[in-house]
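REQUEST ID: PR-0412
SUBMITTED BY: lab tech R.K.
PRIORITY: routine
TASK: structure prediction, single protein chain
INPUT:
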Amino acid sequence: MVVDLIRSRAALEAEIWTLRQQINVLRRTAPKRVSFRVFDRLVFVGLYRLFPNICNTLAIVKPDTIVRWHRAGFRSYWRWKSRPGGGRPTVPLEIRKLIRKISIANPLWGAPRIHAELVKLGIDIGQTSVAKYMATRRGPPSQGWKTFLSNHADGIAAMDLFVVPTISFRLLYGLLIMGHGRRQILWFGVTSHPTAEWIANQLTEACGWEQAPRYLIRDRDGVYGEVFVRRLRSIGIRDRPASPRSPWQNGCAERLIGSIRRECLDHVVVFGERHLRHVLLSYMKYYNETRTHLFLDKDSPLSRIVERVGRIRCRPILGGLHHQYIRI
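STATUS: complete
OUTPUT:
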């Protein structure tokens, strides 16, 4: 290139004509796709940057290819120039999973609250990193129905009547009152002629005037008369009757009555009102103190302690219909 600067114009034009003729011959005999080395591409790109008009003289490569090579080189240059120079250390995967788990389990917590909990756990991490790895929410945080019902279960009670035939085919009526908080049976009442006044007295004895629930769920049986409704208002209980022909709205009481039948009454012949009351009270003691429930994480309504020391003994309940296992 330095020698070409001092050569005559005629000699340069002759050499250019010779090179063009050789290129024409090569274009006729060479394959359609020509391979280029990196140095060849750099030469073409450099000449294109200095003299953009050389695109008119290109024969073995298209002008678009030269432009594409130039853009690829530009991207590679800025990728090299923008390479990471250290910065913050990466957060371990376990900590990222923990941040996401905490944010999902506590939708009301923000980054400062989660960061404070991590600091108390001995995890050294910045608050901005916590905000980065939190679970994103599309809408405002809200509790689910399960949480909502659990928060209000302690103030809800349910009641229902069920029929029990005796050995003489006489019909007795059992009244069940249960609390939703721990699925505890609060009261069993037995009568042969249920009336609104009798049910009101049973409710007063079961709940009292100081530990009355806030809401009472019941069906629309005609036996719940005006006397019963007035008693609820005097105690301060809000009456919540279920919709007509909708027993699922009082599902806890219906489910409990089914358990009473399957686990007790279907295996016992009732002799009379006194006998039925004794059987139901025995089952209530077993249900509240001994029987485990999936809803309560396999605990009883009146929580049982875990016994680890002593020999295991079996104690029959309801004449051996059920058993209680304890350590002594």
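NOTES: The chain has a mean pLDDT of 85.
REVIEWED BY: pending
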